[in-house]
Amino acid sequence: MTLSFAALLAPFTLEFFQRGLLGGALVAVLCGVVGTWVVVRGMAFLGEALAHGMLPGVALATVLGVPVLAGGALSAVAMSIGIGALHRRARLSYDTSIGLLFVSMLALGVLIISHSGSFATDATAILFGDILAITPADLLLLAAAAVLGVTVAILCHRPFVALALDARIATVLRLRPRWAQAALVGLVTLAVVASYQAVGSLLVVGLLLAPAVAAGQWTTRLPTRMVLAAAFGVAAVVLGLLTSWFAATAAGASVAAAAIGLAALSWAGRSAVTVRRPSALGTAPASLS
Question: Where are the alpha helices (DSSP H) in the chain?
Answer without folding.
Answer: 5-9, 15-41, 44-53, 55-64, 68-89, 94-114, 120-128, 136-155, 157-165, 167-172, 177-216, 222-247, 251-276
